[in-house]
What does this fold into?
Amino acid sequence: MIIPAYNAAEYIEKAINSVLEQTYPAAEIFVIDDGSSDNTAEVVSKYPPPVYLLRQENGGPASARNHGARHATGDWLAFLDADDTWLPEKLEKQIPLTEDPQVVLVHCCSKPIDSPITFETLWQCNQIINSTVLVRRLSFENVGGFNEDRTLIGVEDYNLWLRLLSLGSFTQIPYLLINYTPSHNSLSSQTERFVKAEIRNIEIISQILPISKNQILKKHVDVLMTYGKIFVNMRDQKKARILFKSALDMQISATLIAWWLITFIPTHFLDIRRHIRTIKA
It folds into this structure.
């Protein structure tokens, strides 16, 4: 299993220990120090096998995961982000599902997904948390692993899932078997980076997979609208307006026009409206 780590000294022990405490033991645990400036490597190096420290210059999470995958020897690859942890029975619950030869990815989620994941449903939104997955090694290698384009940071896992789904099926455990730390994307600059990564992912996937123009258009508009709403909630009206205008340039709809008009409302009026709604609740 593979843990990319960048300046993770504060919490990497919790991640490693959660793997060591599995009821179904992991044969090897590769922690990839991705050019950290703190003492991540020192913390990891204190662990004996099956924990192994790999080091590289900073290349981003996709590069670090690929580095670990090249050293792994098992038929299945598991990934864990350094600030997440596994519940003790995570592997034990998932391993039986790997016996189906059609399955290329096993994951778990907080609520059951009513029907099997198809490209259409996955294209609508990423429903898979990276730290929950087991990926068939051969399939991972066949699609070239994670795309290391740094403009994809934040959605590099989503990019891989979309490519993997063309090789087989995904299956799930219908409850969460990890303690997950959500992305810290509350800052406007970080949210803006996620928008660019999502758009870049659309461009890349549409070049390598047979996706209709309507699917590409709808995905573009959905991404712009989703992040436009996030910027409105963050009271960054200017950036929200830019995204809604970009979406309107692609597709006219009453909903988009309404959201675009909202960005011209002074933020203190929006705050008053929110306050009134809170009082009524």
